[in-house]
Amino acid sequence: MNNVFYGKLIFELSREGRRGYSLPKNELASYSMTDMPNALLREQDPGLPEVDELTVVRHYTNMSNNNFGVDTGYYPLGSCTMKYNPKINEEIAVHRAFTGLHPLQDIDTVQGALEVYYKLQQSLATLAGMKEFTLNPYAGAHGELTGLMVMRSYHASRGDDKRTKVIVPDSAHGTNPASAAVCGLDVVVVKSRPDGTVDVDDLRPLLDDTIAGMMMTNPNTLGIFEHSIAEIAKLVHDCGGLMYYDGANLNPMLGKVRPGDIGFDIMHINLHKTFSTPHGGGGPGSGPVGVREGLEQFLPSPRVIRIDGDDDCYEYNIDFGKDSLGSISGFLGNFGVMMRAYTYILTLGRDQVKNVGPLATLNANYIKESLKDVYELPIEGVCKHEFVFDGLKDKSTGVTTLDVAKRLLDYGYHAPTIYFPLLFHEALMIEPTENESKETLDGFIDVMRKIAQEAKDDPEMVKSAPHTTPVRRLDDTKAALHPIVTYRELAAEQ
Hints:
34% helix, alpha/beta, Aspartate Aminotransferase, domain 2, 3-stranded antiparallel sheet, 7-stranded mixed sheet, 494 residues, globular
């Protein structure tokens, strides 16, 4: 490509003396800087690029064209549920009636915003089978930590201080044991059976009066529904523990099964996974936490409550409960993200929200059945929202799951999750959502079959992929161990 901007850093486009702005005259020049500590003053100007406005616009526009997102193509990332964010969500979230608010305004001036908070809390509680939700956590992992803090607060309120262990399946998301450790809990691993579900026989001897609770994802990380969940919940409850639901895989449950109805006491929801808010890029996020009746007093403060008035007139207030575990975030969480989720719920309505889970499940099973003759399916049967292949069925080609993922980039598809979960050596985890059309799924299936054939006919071509991307095959190990993150370091190495 002859485009002078293509593939270059903004520093490489810099030319001394070029400017893209003009600052107004400094009207404070007469004021002294003597009160500024010397340690905070620069000894020389920062090494910023010198470029005109048009160069800046073209550079970042070209950079953006290299990004892949759910708005530009199919994103079958397993476990992370890359759901489309409808544009009506954005229109409502950026409405000036909401964007102009400040968290320190008087309560009586933000009644509309507090009503949205309250109604979203109630909507999530209804959909999840819980008594009450807090919207304060900033992300799913933050929600996990908050839920575990609720669990600890519950046991502490009963003087049951020796419950310091939490049970986690060996197929769990990595954030589960990490959140437990941050919360000061010891992790006890329960094994999975060959079909990927929790081994109840392995669970029984782990249960005693030191168990605070058990964390589970249902359907689990393999996309399989835990059919023994009622028995598992009873065993944990009988030993005095609580059941925690990791909401990462709530999408296929939506409208069909409520975690609160099958024995879970505490849960978090990833709004970006189930309720269509933006995902990725480091934020913003939201991980609401819900609890069954009897645990709501332990939720973090502040909480939005409704005060009933006469003639169906309601007033909304902020409450700081005396039994609350305290504050876990600034103010009330990410309001803009919540606006998007609430808009999504209202757009679907009570009837259509029931179709989310079944359609996500249908799409996943359609892809699985269409590819299992060329990709290794370690666990047969109906999956829910996602499933896992164990690489290509023909292992003699030497083409790995990583190679398949790299080759997908040449065909314009983002790769699925690879090498997770750790239960299979060549794991390739695929999750469509309910949004994707049959035509999109058929296109993905055709490409996956084509790659399987390429692996037989020309394995070296697949092993050296990608061939059409701006950056070719990378040394992943070197990139992880010796990342180049500054222009100065890059220039010195060159």
